[in-house]
Amino acid sequence: MAGAPKLVQARAKLNLRLNVLGIQPNGLHGIRSLIGELVFGDDVEISERAGGFSVETEGAEIPERENLVWLAATRLGIDLSSVHVRVRKRIPMQAGLGGGSSDAAALLRGLRDVFAARGAPISDDAVHNAERVGSDVPACLVRGFKRVEGTGDIVVREQLPTPPWGLLLLRPPVGVPTSEAYRLLDAGRSGAPASSSDPSSERDLQELCGAIQTNDFPRACSLLHNDFQPVVELLFPSVAEARQRLREAGAAATLLCGSGSCVAGFFETRAAAAAAHKTLKTGEGEWATATCFADA
């Protein structure tokens, strides 16, 4: 791997619709979601260094062997003895923005390029095995907008244009582990969850794709949805407060990001989101940024 380090961007993701369905045969929850990529994210740098495989992280404290980057790489089943990975974190943790999964996906993309250049391409089977370290990793391997079903393993790219809308993200001073969000959801449901054949969630997802296709901002805002939002806000009032603050800053709609705790405010233009960011006051332990959807 001689030469300059390989730099890969790990983009943050945003679930514009997220329906959590029933338990699947493998014991995991099924989902139906439409996910878009954002322009901001982490950087994953792959370089050559003498010694064994190593991963270091800047901007967050993540034990090396608990990092999804480490776990994904070591599941490839290839010789990584000369590989060193540096992850520069910008995506906040436990925010629902897919930071760890996106890092792992970026690492897999980067390693495929590096080993192909070496004349030792990594097989599709090896990548499929490695991506199982996180349910969001398969989605993060697909660029642009994608529809995700099953337990995150069924990913279909949606051929949609990049909308000109702006986003203002605000993470309150709490984190929500994904496992805790699912526990809260299961505990808070009085009836059976929707099934994978539920026509309403399928119809609404297709209508949202249509609104993005035609740049119908008001219609898209009306179709945003996240099953986690009510239960997360019930236990973490600061999440509900963050959504209210985004509304007061001018957001036309707000949405919990993934399983939380970050929330997104939707603006019709990127300039409007940037202007709102300048006026938004953040307290201790909070994080905010203005961003937009990324081109595929």
Tag the structure with descriptive keywords:
4-stranded antiparallel β-sheet; 10 helices; Ribosomal Protein S5, domain 2; single chain; Alpha-Beta Plaits; alpha+beta; 2 domains; 33% helix; 296 residues; 7-stranded mixed β-sheet
Radius of gyration: 19 Å
| Proper CATH architecture of the largest domain | 2-Layer Sandwich
Tell me what portion of residues adopts beta-strand conformation.
25-35%
Q: How confident is the prediction overall: mean pLDDT? A: 94
Quaternary: single chain
Q: In this structure, how is the largest beta sheet organized? A: 7 strands, mixed
What structural category arises from helix and sheet content? alpha+beta
Task: Provide the helix percentage.
Answer: 25-40%
Brief characterization of the structure:
By secondary structure, this protein is an alpha+beta fold. The protein is 33% helix and 27% strand. The protein is built from 10 helices and 11 strands.
Helices and strands in order:
Elements: E1 6-23, E2 29-48, E3 54-58, H1 68-74, E4 83-88, H2 99-117, H3 124-130, H4 137-140, E5 146-149, E6 154-157, E7 166-171, H5 178-188, H6 199-213, H7 217-223, E8 225-226, H8 229-235, H9 237-248, E9 253-256, E10 263-267, H10 270-279, E11 287-292
Parallel strand pairs: 1-8, 3-4
Antiparallel strand pairs: 1-2, 2-4, 2-5, 5-6, 7-10, 7-11, 9-10
